[in-house]
């Protein structure tokens, strides 16, 4: 059935959307009596699309200034060296739970009849893995699995003894130019860790600490780090595609998925970061992820 633009139902539907942009097609049908399929045709005719909400990190008043200051510093670096952020190792930790849920929106089972596809989730026997990864110049560093939660001693041991081994396959040029970035997690900003970074990466690390031997990382800014805006979501959707059976099984899945990511994909996260700092500046340090297409 064709909907004409002068159909009186068009005005009704558009008026309801204008008054309540969150209204659903079902609600329009119930309140107006216009069949659901007709409502869909009207919205398509006028190019309305049901955009989904984007969950973002809540910012405090001071965060805006700190985010803006960091992004302006990053912009200045890019003006002096367009390849600068290829050599910044963005790093982060994430927790993978055996009860973790895949994105069901991406899970389909095409069939003529309903296959009643289900997955059992064991909430009585829960365990988790804490995983560290870094991305620098198209290299995925890690994964490294922490034995328990990340505290000062474990993180310092990792930086001192494990990270150098993980970087062995990275070319010497990248290692010589590399900066280290991490967020303001308690283990990251301990005094012992700061002292180590000041000695090892003097003036070449980004984080939260005392003194002037580093660049301050803005708190509550996962939208600016490639592990957060790309890697963790990709890994979890892949790892949780089938329910993990054991810790070892989950670890191997994470390792295999990391190994399978092409270098050009990892390099593309640098361009995404650079676009994000421009958006952050344009919005005066505010939230911008809902504007990314």
UniProtKB/TrEMBL annotation:
<protein>
    <recommendedName>
        <fullName>Transposase</fullName>
    </recommendedName>
</protein>
<dbReference type="GO" id="GO:0003676">
    <property type="term" value="F:nucleic acid binding"/>
</dbReference>
<dbReference type="InterPro" id="IPR036397">
    <property type="entry name" value="RNaseH_sf"/>
</dbReference>
């Amino acid at each position: 059935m064709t909907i004409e633009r002068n159909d009186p139902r068009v005005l009704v539907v558009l008026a309801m959307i204008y008054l309540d942009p969150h209204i659903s097609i079902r609600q329009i049908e119930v309140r107006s009596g216009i069949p659901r399929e007709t409502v869909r045709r009207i919205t398509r005719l006028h190019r309305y699309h049901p955009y989904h909400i984007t969950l973002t990190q809540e910012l405090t008043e001071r965060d805006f200034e700190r985010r803006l200051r960091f992004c302006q510093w990053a912009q200045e670096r890019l003006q002096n060296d367009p390849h600068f952020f290829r050599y910044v190792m963005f790093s982060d930790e994430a927790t993978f739970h055996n009860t973790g849920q895949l994105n069901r929106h991406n899970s389909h089972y095409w069939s003529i009849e309903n296959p009643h596809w289900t997955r059992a989730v064991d909430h009585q026997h829960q365990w988790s893995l804490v995983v560290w990864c870094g991305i620098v110049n198209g290299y995925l560093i890690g994964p490294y699995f922490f034995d328990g939660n990340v505290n000062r001693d474990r993180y310092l041991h990792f930086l001192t003894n494990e990270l150098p081994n993980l970087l062995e396959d990275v070319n010497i040029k990248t290692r010589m130019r590399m900066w280290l970035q991490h967020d303001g997690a308690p283990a990251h900003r301990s005094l012992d860790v700061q002292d180590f970074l000041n000695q090892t990466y003097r003036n070449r690390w980004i984080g939260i600490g005392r003194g002037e031997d580093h660049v301050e990382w803005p708190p509550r800014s996962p939208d600016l780090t490639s592990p957060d805006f790309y890697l963790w979501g990709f890994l979890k959707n892949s790892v949780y595609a089938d329910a993990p059976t054991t810790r070892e099984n989950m670890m191997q899945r994470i390792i295999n998925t990391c190994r399978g990511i092409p270098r050009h994909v990892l390099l593309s996260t640098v361009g995404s970061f650079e676009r994000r700092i421009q958006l952050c500046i344009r919005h005066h340090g505010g939230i911008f992820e809902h504007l990314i297409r």
